Every structure is written in C-alpha cells, then in structure tokens.
Amino acid sequence: MNLQVRSTQKELLDSDAIPFADISQNMLELNRVNHLLGGHRTTLKGFKTLLGNRKRLHICEIGSGGGDNLLVLLSWCKTHSIHVTFTGIDINPHCIAFARTRTLLESTTSWITSDYRTVVFDHPPDIIFSSLFCHHFTDDELVSQLRWMHQTARLGFFINDLHRHPFAYYAIRLLTRLFSRSYLVKNDAPISVARGFVKHEWQQLLSSASITGYAIQPRWAFRHLITYQHG
C-alpha cells in the first residue's frame, strides 16, 4: 500500500447492496472503535470549540451513520444544561434505520435519508460537522463539500477525520483482523486510513474552497480536527 498519496479504493460500505444486519454490526463496532481510539473525544472537542457560552443550538451531522456521535453530544449537553436539536443526514437508508433505533435521540433528532447536497433547511443549522465522512470523497468533491458547510452553517463547522500514516494503517489492519466480527470493518478500516489526509492536503483543500481562518489540530489516535468559526 502506497501511503504517500490518498488511495482511491472504494470501501464496501459505499455500496448500495449491503444488508441491514451487516451494517448494524458495522455501526456497533465503529462506535466501540470511536470510543476506544479517541474519535468521540475529538468530536466533542470540535463541538466545544464552536459552542462558546450558548445554551441553545441546532446541530447537523452529515454522514451521520448510526448516530453515535449525536448520542455523545446529547449526553454532554444534558449534563451541561444545553438545549440541542439535531439533524442527521445520511444517504444510506440502512444507516438511518439503525440510527432511528437510538431511542435517546428520538425527541431531539430529525433524520434525513438524502445526499446532503440536496437538503434545504428552513432554518440553517448553527453548527455542521462530519466524522469519518470526508475520506469517502475525491478532492474535488471535498472542495465542494467544504464550501457547502462554510455557506450553510450559521456559526461554523468542524471535521473529524483520519490522519494517513503507515502505523495507523497496519495497526488498524491487525486489530480488526484479531477482534472484529464484521467483514465490513475488517475490509474498510484500513482503506479508510489509506483514504485519509495529511495536514498539507487539508490546507490545500481549504485554500481551494477559499476558506481562511480555520484551525487544524492533530488528535489522538491519528486524527485531524478541523474547525472553522464565522467571525
């Protein structure tokens, strides 16, 4: 695997023909991986960076998957007396069906099965974010996605995604072979790393989208957190 450049290999999860039971197992395992390897902490860090002293927010996640990121944010907001409503957008109906089983999110969340680009909001979200979503796209698609987030979010956006690195690639390949019960996770986890980014690639993408004033932070384990807040 040549990790000097981003891989263009598609993940199995990008297919339309994955059965619901297999996606459910994949979602459950991704939640555990995000919990153990710092993914949820990075999402929470991005949210708190943009929160300020606000006590009422509408938050949108694109590529919302099984809803585990929104559960983490909801739990934190309840603890800190912050009123939140969520919009979760995912193009895969099986992911949305699984997310709807998260009963704790039922009263706070609107789920939309759609390509995020076709969604029109009556009231723009305060914050838009994505987690482990950007690496599914080509660079040109990502530039358009960054522009959409920048133009649509009222306060700003953040992105939590993978840092492409040989250690991360071979470590996740070994760990998933040893411990995963999901063929999707075993196949897609190392591909996700190979499709991830190094810092200068994020800088180029943001520059191409004409976005300045952002911050890029390295996060454990092998992640980047990109945050942008409107002035």
UniProtKB/TrEMBL annotation:
User: In this protein, which residues make up the domain named Methyltransferase?
Assistant: 59-152
Q: Which UniProt keywords are listed? A: Methyltransferase, Transferase
Return the protein name.
Methyltransferase domain-containing protein
Q: Give the superkingdom in one word.
A: Bacteria
User: Tell me, what is one Gene Ontology molecular-function annotation carried by this entry?
Assistant: methyltransferase activity
Instruction: Give the species.
Output: Spirosoma terrae
* Entry keyword Methyltransferase: yes
One GO BP annotation of this record = methylation
Q: Which Pfam families match?
A: Methyltransf_25
